[in-house]
């Protein structure tokens, strides 16, 4: 049996090997590009869409549609909010609004604003509920 080797409490620093110099890309090689969100948008004003606006497809994806537009049209067979579309496609909300603005202009989708409820309920409705509860 071999006795355990003693180790120093504070080992002497080992010189670190020098990192290799950065290699220049050869012709034909490209560096990893940053992800760019450049889709559509002619600098025109965006459609007035908020996170809860419901989007419904009106047509099948045309052959000239971009991949984002095709994916949106396939998802929107049933009404979905812009927030859900953004999450399903893993795209920022601003990118989805640009794509949807182009699609609204081409009449490929319909946008439905959310229903805004009255801040105060109708008096007759409240009275009917009150009378119904009293009869119980």
Write the layout of secondary structure elements.
Elements: E1 54-57, H1 67-75, E2 80-81, H2 82-89, H3 93-105, E3 109-112, H4 123-135
Antiparallel strand pairs: 1-2, 1-3
Helix pairs in contact: 2-3
Characterise this structure:
- This protein is mainly alpha-helical.
- It has a domain of 73 residues: Arc Repressor Mutant, subunit A (Orthogonal Bundle), CATH 1.10.10.
- Helix content is 32%, strand content 7%.
- It contains four helices and three strands.
- It has a three-stranded antiparallel sheet with strand order 2-1-3.
- The protein is flat, with a radius of gyration of 30 Å.
- The model has no long low-confidence stretch (mean pLDDT 80).
- InterPro entries: DUF742.
- It comes from Streptomyces cinnabarinus.
- It holds the Pfam family DUF742.
Give the SSE string.
Answer: EHEHHEH
CATH topology of the domain at 43-115, by name, is Arc Repressor Mutant, subunit A
Structure class = mainly alpha
Spans with pLDDT under 50 lasting ≥5 residues? none
CATH architectural label of the domain at 43-115: Orthogonal Bundle
Largest sheet: 3 strands, antiparallel
Strand proportion: 5-15%
Determine Rg (CA atoms, Å). 30 Å
- What is the averaged pLDDT score? 80
Shape: flat
- Number of separate helices: 4
Number of extended strands: 3
Q: Distance between the terminal alpha carbons, to the nearest Å?
A: 90 Å
What does this entry show, briefly?
This is DUF742 domain-containing protein. It comes from Streptomyces cinnabarinus. The chain is mainly alpha-helical.
